[in-house]
Amino acid sequence: MVSEGNSLTLQQRVIKDDPDTLHCREITLRLSEDCRHLVLSRYTEHYGPALVRWIERSHTVSVTDLFRWLVANGETDVMTAGSEQLP
Question: Which CATH class, in words, describes the domain spanning 2-68?
Answer without folding.
Answer: mainly beta
